[in-house]
């Protein structure tokens, strides 16, 4: 049994592979390597939505890997985040931060996001090639989440570098080392904020911890690390994917260029078309589960391919076409169920504000290289570009 998602062409365009797998069976086993039991890959929309909402699929990685003799040395604050937990722990931790990411809370951040985007765009060299990722898609979400958490300006470049190392696919030693660096940094930052409190989200979490709001010190560090890293990595990729989709669809790009106020309405379709989170984070069956006509045994990983689900023709007709008039609100780019992305309102605000600013200020933006020469990140979790060379 071979894993078609390991084909080098898959990184460039995974959707034909997903379509072929889905047409055979929307839930099927894929090799896990080194003699382990196979994982199961979900490529159908209905099956993905069902799996994401099924309490029999646990996210508690500590339980799954207990006693398996893993050589990994991830810092506990990174290995055991809210994202890798089930209720009631997940419910308790998520409740502490939910109010920080509501649409209303994010609305207060919009002027800062817009100002930051404009400052970054002020530095773009007109008439010369530039990398959209390095010039806007990477720094904007980093600056915004650091501002929200109260990370000092002088530390933001380090945060960006460590985060990239945490997503270094195929480099477990580098990932493990970065996890300790990030967790140690956050531990020191929390200590500094206790000495000199301010008004950031991290300060509010420290108050909750010190006020005995059922939050341990390790959970405080873990929550802060998760918000810091998850709060920008996927938004960066979503921004790059959205602009690339528009650059490859001139009619849609031209429409938004002439009607920039419609960027907000186009977001769901852009997120559906090329989802930044290609495969949802780790889940495993706690008991035997029947899904999409496939019997999955207990104790095996289930990989939910959000990108594949969002291209399921049974849910989105002619799914490989970017159609900005489509009602794509039911997309799974942010997941579904109790683990649906907490920061979705913030991510959507950043993408909307950034894309609108780019189209208004640089209406002639175009690709500087052929699309088939673009370099994609080598990770199955995140689908995103290493670079996006454009001309303005």
What oligomeric assembly is this protein in?
single chain
How many strand units?
10
| Uncertain stretches of 5 or more adjacent residues | none
Helix and strand pattern: HHEEHEHHHHHEHHHHHHHHHEEEEHHEE
| C-alpha end-to-end distance | 47 Å
Total count of helical runs of at least 4 residues: 19
Backbone shape:
globular
The gyration radius over C-alpha positions equals 21 Å
Q: Strand order across the biggest sheet? A: 1-2-8
Average pLDDT number:
92
Strand content: 5-15%
Please describe the biggest sheet, giving its number of strands, its sense, and whether it closes into a barrel. Answer: 3 strands, mixed
State the secondary-structure class.
Answer: mainly alpha
- Could you estimate the helical fraction of the residues in percent? 40-55%
Description of the structure:
By secondary structure, the chain is mainly alpha-helical. The chain is built from 19 helices and 10 strands. Strands 1-2-8 form a 3-stranded mixed β-sheet. Strands 4-10-9 form a 3-stranded antiparallel β-sheet. Strands 3-5 form a two-stranded antiparallel ribbon.
């Amino acid at each position: 049994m071979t894993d078609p998602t390991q084909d080098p062409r898959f990184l460039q365009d995974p959707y034909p592979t997903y379509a072929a797998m889905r047409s055979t069976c929307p839930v099927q086993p894929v090799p896990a390597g080194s003699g382990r039991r196979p994982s199961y890959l979900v490529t159908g929309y209905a099956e993905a939505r069902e799996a994401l909402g099924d309490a029999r699929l646990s996210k508690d990685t500590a339980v799954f890997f207990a006693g398996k003799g893993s050589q990994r040395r991830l810092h506990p604050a990174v290995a055991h985040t809210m994202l890798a937990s089930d209720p009631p722990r997940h419910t308790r931790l998520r409740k502490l931060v939910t109010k920080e990411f509501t649409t209303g809370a994010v609305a207060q951040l919009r002027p800062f996001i817009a100002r930051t985007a404009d400052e970054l765009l002020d530095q773009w060299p007109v008439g010369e090639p530039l990398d959209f990722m390095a010039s806007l898609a990477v720094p904007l979400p980093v600056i915004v989440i650091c501002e929200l958490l109260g990370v000092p300006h002088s530390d933001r470049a380090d945060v960006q570098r460590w985060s990239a190392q945490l997503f270094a696919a195929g480099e477990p030693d580098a990932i493990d080392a970065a996890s300790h660096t990030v967790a140690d940094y956050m531990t020191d930052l929390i200590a500094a904020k206790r000495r000199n409190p301010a008004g950031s989200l991290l300060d509010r979490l420290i108050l909750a911890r010190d006020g005995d709001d059922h939050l341990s010190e390790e959970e405080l560090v873990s929550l802060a690390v998760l918000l810091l890293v998850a709060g920008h990595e996927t938004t960066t990729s979503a921004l790059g994917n959205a602009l690339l989709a528009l650059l490859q669809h001139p009619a849609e790009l031209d429409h938004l260029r002439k009607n920039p106020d419609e960027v907000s309405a186009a977001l769901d379709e852009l997120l559906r078309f090329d989802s930044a989170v290609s495969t949802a984070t780790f889940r495993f069956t706690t008991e035997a589960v029947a899904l999409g006509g496939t019997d999955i045994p207990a104790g095996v990983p289930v990989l939910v391919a959000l990108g594949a689900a969002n291209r399921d023709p049974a849910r989105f007709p002619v799914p490989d076409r970017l159609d900005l008039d489509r009602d794509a609100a039911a997309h799974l780019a942010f997941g579904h169920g109790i683990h649906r992305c907490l920061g979705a309102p913030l991510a959507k605000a950043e993408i909307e504000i950034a894309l609108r600013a780019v189209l208004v200020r640089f209406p002639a933006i175009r690709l500087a290289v052929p699309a088939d020469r673009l370099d994609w990140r080598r990770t199955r979790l995140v689908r995103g570009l290493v670079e996006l060379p454009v001309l303005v």
